[in-house]
Amino acid sequence: MRKIRLFIASSLDGYIADETGNLDWLFTDQDYGYSEFFNQIDTLIMGNKTYQQILGFSEYPYPGKEAFVFSKMQHGEQDDHVKFVGENLEDFIKNLRRSSGGDIWLVGGSQVIEFFMEKGFLDEMIIAIHPIILGDGIPLFSKNTNITQRLDLIDVKTYASGLVQVYYLFC
Q1: pLDDT tens digits for 75-124?
Q2: Domains along the chain?
Q3: What is the Cα–Cα distance from 64 to 160, expressed in whole angstroms?
Q4: Which phi and psi angles does 99 have, rounded to 5°?
Q5: Which among 9, 79, 5, 69 has a CA at the least distance from the CA of 39?
Q6: Could you give the dihedral angle defined by the CA atoms of residues 98, 104, 109 and 112, in that order, rounded to the nearest 10 degrees?
Q7: Is the CA virtual torsion 165, 31, 57, 116 positive or negative?
């Protein structure tokens, strides 16, 4: 069965983007394990807000990867980069996990992450914690979540820049 892995960056105070969705605070001075991770996955899943943010980038950052966007409004549609899925999400995820291929990257955002956690679909979480405090923004987990989840720490990587990457398995 294919693993679903969350690989995401966060500020020290738990935000994945500033209040406008901006990501210019992310460290880009080195790879931080991204290329190795990217080569292990062949499928991506993300929420529509995340996808709309990505469309604002100068170029689509995930060429050659199959990608799905969760969107009830666009269910069944597709564009040059992704297919939109908005119905029977649990069955869709179960079938995707059973299909052949590499690991699946849950790109974000927080609503989709919480859905995957609530349903027990996440296998691994890799969080790159940047040594910056944003004070406000889009949280990794909403303050209204009722999820209690135990994780097993499997690795920690530190970088001279102050970035810390933590690797967890879901129990």
Answers
A1: 889 999 999 999 999 999 999 999 999 999 999 888 899 999 999 999 99
A2: 4-170 (3.40.430.10)
A3: 32
A4: -75, 165
A5: 5
A6: 10
A7: negative
- Is the pTM here over 0.90, yes or no? yes
CA distance 131 to 164: 8
Residue 113 and residue 73: Cα distance in Å, rounded?
19
Number of other residues whose CB lies within 10 A of the CB of residue 52: 13
* Count of C-beta atoms within a 10 Å radius of residue 118: 13
Pseudo-torsion of CA 140, 145, 147, 148, nearest 10°?
80
SS (H, E, C) the chain: CCCEEEEEEEECCCEEECCCCCCCCCCCCCCCCHHHHHHHEEEEEEEHHHHHHHHCCCCCCCCCCEEEEECCCCCCCECCCCEEECCCHHHHHHHHHHCCCCEEEEEECHHHHHHHHHHCCCCEEEEEEECCCCCCCEECCCCCCCCCCCEEEEEEEECCCCCEEEEEEEC
